[in-house]
Design a protein that fits this description.
With about 475 residues, this protein is mainly alpha-helical. The chain has helices at about 20-45, 45-55, 60-90, 95-110, 125-145, 155-180, 210, 215-225, 225-230, 240-260, 265-295, 300-325, 330-345, 370-400, 410-420, 425-435, 440-445, 445-460, and strands at about 350, 355, 355-360.
Length: about 475
């Protein structure tokens, strides 16, 4: 367990730190609620599979081009996260950065409405909009994460992080139910999951319900991020903007020079780089893979997403409590073992076989998840959700326990860097392997390497780790 030691300059006569009221914590938690529909609706269960199966020429081309766009956005995030984090630490404030990058999320998401089916002319603009929104949500998350240590005592950080993730998953579930129940319809029947005609006169033939997930994500974020701005206190401004840039870059250079002297921090950041790449790729392509393997439509993929998000909510809530009791390292390691086994099992499932045993394939327009292979995929998805929530929540608390308080945003920038520096490589590699092998399964097999490599490196993080980087 990575344990937090007293701050570097603490003295016996220093008064204990005070923490803001519950309303501030509530506002911070709602950021996860506000941002989660982007990951649930856009990158995983609705828009990405819709793009691959309806906008692109075929699912293989759709998976590869979506992978290239994800890679490009990830590269930008990887290069700029630690720099912007260092500048924010020097300047002090976090909210202006969240507002700026939240605006990019709103603009990029809103533009996804243009994604008409079968129109090759909008593919490039659509992928650009997706890249802008992804950059916005990821950077906004960096600065929101950096507010955590000032909200609760160290012994409650795990519970705070887990509660935030669980709340986010609930928001994702509700947004998905809203889309499937009232907006996105089966193009054959013209009815939603609840058997209703889509609201607002949305046309099932042109998949307007699927496309509206972009603007819905934007509106959802604008509404539910407001409590964070209203109730959660920001850090005080420390350095004017121009001086913050110089000071931030200087501190970033110092931190990078010191990293090799802290093997546990370095090992954790590299492990995070590898296993988060696998997780991001799994979420980015899980729905696309199901659409190509089983021929699932939006309603089927979305229902699968609801079940996965429910398991993620349970996992994140329980994981936060296990984090405070067992430590974040144990939670992350256990989650990685589950993810590794689940992905390996998914690769052994086909439409007409489970672990090489022939089964009855799905029937077109048949009952929901009636085929044995679909049921097996559903069960493995439940395991993935159960492990993904606590892994992400415990990873950010582990960073908090390892990082110096005065450079927390900078370290979260490095955390985002390691979570993204190869996240452009993972989707890129999946895109290339899918392209070359002309097989979605071959592309998804890459994920096994990422989870196994991340777990091996995580084991190098010492159970007793210093609080701050050495001087």
């Amino acid at each position: 367990m990575a344990q937090a030691l007293p701050a570097h300059n603490s003295h016996a006569n220093v008064s204990p730190q005070t923490y803001p009221p519950r309303s501030a914590v509530f506002g911070w938690i709602l950021f996860d609620w506000a941002a989660q529909p982007y990951f649930t609706l856009i990158t995983t269960f609705v828009f990405a599979p819709y793009f691959a199966s309806r906008v692109a020429s075929d699912p293989v081309a759709g998976q590869s081009s979506w992978g290239y766009a994800t890679a490009a956005a990830g590269l930008v995030i990887a290069l700029l996260s630690p720099v912007l984090g260092a500048i924010a630490d020097a300047g002090g404030r976090r909210k202006p950065w969240i507002a700026a990058f939240g605006t990019l999320l709103v603009i990029g998401s809103s533009l996804m409405w243009i994604g008409k089916p079968g129109d090759p002319s909008i593919i490039v603009p659509l992928l650009i909009a997706y890249g802008i929104a992804t950059i916005g949500v990821e950077f906004a998350t960096v600065f929101n994460n950096a507010m955590m240590p000032t909200l609760v005592p160290p012994e409650r950080i795990g519970r705070l992080s887990g509660t935030g993730w669980a709340t986010g998953y609930v928001g994702g579930i509700l947004s998905l139910i809203l889309v499937l129940g009232f907006m996105a319809a089966n193009p054959v029947t013209g009815k939603t999951l609840f058997g209703l005609t889509p609201i607002f006169g949305l046309d099932p033939a042109t998949f307007q319900g699927d496309r509206l997930t972009g603007p819905l994500t934007a509106v959802w974020f604008m509404i539910f991020v407001l409590p964070m701005f209203l109730f959660t206190p920001d850090h005080a401004a420390k350095t004017p903007a121009r001086g913050a840039v110089r000071e931030g870059l200087r501190e970033l250079r110092e931190t990078l020079v010191r990293l090799p002297k802290t093997p546990s921090m370095l090992a954790f950041l590299i492990a995070n780089m590898i296993y988060m790449d696998g997780l991001v790729s799994l979420f980015a392509f899980g729905g696309i893979y199901a659409a190509g393997t089983f021929g699932w439509n939006t309603i089927q993929i979305g229902t699968f997403g609801i079940l996965l998000a429910i398991s993620g909510t349970i996992g994140a809530w329980l994981g936060g409590r296990l984090d405070d009791r067992l430590g974040p390292k144990a939670v992350v390691a256990g989650s990685l073992v589950i993810l590794l086994g689940a992905v390996a099992a998914i690769l052994l499932i086909d439409r007409d076989a489970i672990f090489f045993i022939p089964v009855t394939p799905p029937v077109p327009n048949g009952p929901l998840f009636a085929a044995p292979a679909e049921k097996a995929y559903l069960a493995l998805g439940f395991l993935i959700g159960l492990a993904a929530g606590p892994m992400q929540a415990a990873s950010r608390t582990m960073l908090i326990r390892l990082a110096p308080k005065e450079r927390i945003t900078q370290c979260f920038g490095l955390f985002a860097l390691t979570g993204k520096v190869t996240s452009f490589f993972g989707p890129l590699l999946i895109g290339i392997v899918t392209d070359v092998a002309d097989s979605q399964k071959a592309g998804m097999a890459i994920l096994v390497l990422f989870f196994a490599g991340g777990l091996a490196l995580l084991m190098r993080v010492r159970a007793q780790s210093v609080r701050a980087l050495p001087a």
